[in-house]
Design a protein that fits this description.
Layout (H helix, E strand, L loop, with lengths): L1 H33 L1 H55 L3 H14 L3 E5 L10 E4 L5 E7 L6 E2 L1 H11 L7 E6 L3 E2 L1 H9 L2 E4 L1 H8 L4 H4 L15
Parallel strand pairs: 3-5, 4-6, 5-7
Antiparallel strand pairs: 1-2, 2-3
Helix pairs in contact: 2-6, 4-5
C-alpha cells in the first residue's frame, strides 16, 4: 500500500511539474510576442553567436584532428625510414657491423677510433675519444631484431668497461629491439648508455651520438656530466 501511495505521489508531482512547465512556456511565448521588437535583436545576436561558436569549435576540432593525424604519420614515416636503414645494417656481418659503428663514431667527431675485431677484447669492440678527451668504449652486439640483450651480457660489459678500459662513456649498441628489464636496470644503475634497435636506427639516420648519450628509460643510460 505504501509503495502504491508513493507511486501515486510521484505521478502527481510529475503532472504538476509538467503543468507548470506548460504554463511557464505559454507565458514566455506571450511575453516574447508582446515584446518582440525588443527581443528579436537579442535572439539574433544569441543565434549568431551560437552558430559562429559552433562553426569555430568544429574547425578547431578538425584542425586538432588533422594535426594529430599528421603527427602520427610523421612518426610512422620516421619509423619506416629507420627500418629501411636498419635493413642495410642487418645485412652486415658482425665484423662489418663493428666497423660501421666505428665509422658512426668518427662521423660524430670521435678521434683515434680503433676496432678490436677479435675475441678476448673484454667488451671493448670499439674504442675512441670524444673531442673533449673523454674515452668512449663500445660493446657491439649484432643480434636478431626479435632477441633481447640479457642481464648476463650487460654484466660482462659493466665488469670491464670502466675497471679494465677506463671508459668515461660506456656504450652498449645492439641491433635487437629490447634489453631485458634486468639488463636495462643494470645499465641505468651503472651509467651504461644502452642503444637498442630504435635508438641505433636514429643514430644511423643522422642523430648525433652526443644527443643519444643522455637518454634515459627505454634503452638509455643515466646522465653523466662531461669530464
Amino acid at each position: 500500500m505504501a509503495a502504491r501511495r508513493r507511486r501515486r505521489l510521484r505521478k502527481g508531482t510529475r503532472r504538476q511539474v509538467q503543468g507548470w512547465g506548460i504554463v511557464a512556456v505559454a507565458l514566455a511565448a506571450v511575453w516574447v510576442a508582446g515584446n518582440w521588437a525588443t527581443v528579436w535583436p537579442v535572439l539574433t545576436v544569441v543565434l549568431v553567436t551560437v552558430v559562429v561558436g559552433g562553426i569555430g569549435w568544429g574547425l578547431l576540432r578538425a584542425h586538432r584532428s588533422a594535426v594529430d593525424e599528421d603527427r602520427q604519420w610523421r612518426v610512422q614515416e620516421v619509423a619506416k625510414a629507420r627500418e629501411l636503414s636498419m635493413a642495410e645494417v642487418d645485412a652486415l656481418t658482425w665484423q662489418d657491423f663493428e666497423r660501421y659503428v666505428a665509422d658512426l663514431c668518427r662521423r660524430d667527431g670521435c678521434r683515434d677510433v680503433v676496432v678490436s675485431g677479435r675475441s678476448g677484447d673484454l667488451g671493448a669492440d670499439v674504442v675512441g675519444y670524444f673531442s673533449d678527451g673523454r674515452k668512449l668504449v663500445v660493446q657491439v652486439k649484432k643480434y636478431a631484431p626479435e632477441r633481447s640483450v640479457s642481464s648476463q651480457d650487460m654484466q660482462k660489459f659493466v665488469g670491464t668497461a670502466r675497471p679494465e678500459h677506463g671508459a668515461d662513456v660506456a656504450l652498449f649498441v645492439t641491433t635487437c629491439r629490447t634489453f631485458t628489464k634486468a639488463a636495462l636496470g643494470l645499465a641505468v644503475r651503472q651509467n651504461i648508455v644502452a642503444l637498442h634497435r630504435d635508438l641505433l636506427g636514429s643514430w644511423v639516420k643522422g642523430a648525433h651520438l652526443e644527443t643519444l648519450i643522455p637518454l634515459n628509460g627505454s634503452g638509455g643510460g643515466t646522465r653523466r656530466p662531461p669530464v
